[in-house]
Design a protein that fits this description.
This protein folds into 2 domains: about 200 residues, no CATH class; about 90 residues, no CATH class. The chain is about 40% helix and about 10% strand. It contains 13 helices and 9 strands. The strands form 2 sheets. The chain has a 6-stranded mixed beta sheet with strand order 6-3-7-1-2-8. The N terminus is likely disordered. InterPro entries: Gsf2.
Length: about 375
């Protein structure tokens, strides 16, 4: 969807965070009738794990709307700032609330995940048991039960079964040779590191399958292009302020034809104070109200209104007028990720007025 006129009763685009990762805020198209309950379809349909890690339930239980003010780009787009963890910037909504009545266009919706305490403590218990069995024999109350050694015996048995006797002999010889205390301690330290690495891989979400135990044949869900369109999936990921600044620099250097022309056009001077971080009661912290007007903005408060998004849509149409389909698609991708890296007229004036007041500090 190109950013045409965005009115309260029309469709709009929002962003949905996956894996509780601020680098995975994906654009989603919704209709004016979409309710928050409908967003569950995204998590039920996509064949990937979207939870933070294995210690959370596979599906979210609720949604909240991020109301942190955000970062206003040089050309009038709003990116998400870094206060997503602060509860005061998480507006709770009912599952049957209409999304368009609770969110501004481009606002971020955060899934709320239920922590699986039972699974977490079971996993910790398994790691502790594994570590206990690997205790050095000279201090272990139950020497000789090392799980690692049991695995070696199993591999030796399998090697003998399939006539790889020389491999089996290597395993058996290694297990039967006496190990001095120093070596036992060294191996145990290695086992501690091994367990910590396993825990880190799971806790960080690097190992995060959709299901941990797969019993019986599992039919993979078929996700077609039509399925993704029905979900409102665009595949576009929102940038943060730092990514935007890097992209703006590279884009403008390319636009002006090199470092020297960009310098002559004062691009590098602008980069020193690119965009502005907004404060409370402005940006996405503006309550959604169709009655808001452009005139509600002041020099130090960037108050959102549907009139402002209409102006954005009008400028987008002016910017893409006469461009071919490929160029328009590139402009849409840019708009969804960074906001359009061009502006003019009313939008440029409003941004410059707000920039003059400087960054706001949040409590």
């Amino acid at each position: 969807m190109s950013p045409k006129e965005i009115l309260p009763e029309s469709s709009l685009e929002i962003y949905l965070r996956f894996n509780d990762d601020m680098e995975k805020d994906y654009c989603l198209q919704i209709t004016s009738e979409t309710v928050f309950r409908d967003l569950f379809k995204v998590f039920q349909t996509l064949p990937i794990s979207l939870r933070p890690n294995l210690f959370y339930d596979p599906q979210p239980v609720l949604f909240v709307v991020l109301t942190a003010p955000g970062y206003l780009t040089e050309d009038g787009a709003l990116l998400f700032s870094y206060e997503t963890g602060q509860e005061k910037y998480q507006k709770r909504v009912a599952l049957d609330d209409v999304v368009a009545k609770q969110c501004w266009p481009g606002q971020l919706v955060l899934p709320v995940w239920r922590f699986n305490h039972f699974g977490y403590y079971m996993f910790i218990s398994a790691l502790v048991v594994w570590l206990y069995t690997d205790l050095p024999d000279f201090v272990s109350p139950t020497p000789g039960i090392c799980l690692t050694n049991q695995m070696s015996y199993l591999l030796s048995w399998a090697a003998q079964k399939y006539n790889f006797n020389h491999i089996a002999d290597v395993f058996i010889k290694d297990l039967q040779e006496p190990v001095n205390i120093g070596a036992q301690c060294a191996f145990f330290i290695f086992h501690i590191v091994k367990v910590l690495v396993v825990f880190f891989l799971v806790w960080s979400g690097m190992f995060n399958p959709t299901r941990l135990l797969r019993l019986g044949p599992q039919k993979k869900p078929v996700v077609t292009k039509e399925t993704l369109i029905a979900l409102g999936w665009t595949g576009s990921k929102r940038a943060n302020a730092d990514e935007y600044k890097d992209e703006y620099r590279e884009y403008k250097i390319k636009e002006f034809g090199g470092m020297v022309p960009a310098h002559q056009a004062s691009v590098f001077t602008k980069l020193k104070h690119l965009g502005v971080f907004l404060g409370d009661h402005e940006g996405f912290n503006t309550p959604v109200n169709p009655a808001n007007k452009l005139s509600d903005m002041s020099d130090d408060k960037f108050v959102l209104s549907y009139d402002y998004f209409v102006k954005q849509g009008e400028f987008f149409e002016e910017f893409t007028a006469g461009k071919d389909a490929e160029q328009i698609n590139e402009a849409i991708k840019q708009f969804r990720r960074y906001g359009l890296l061009h502006s003019g007229g009313v939008i440029a004036d409003l941004v410059q007025k707000r920039k003059a007041a400087g960054d706001s500090k949040l409590d």
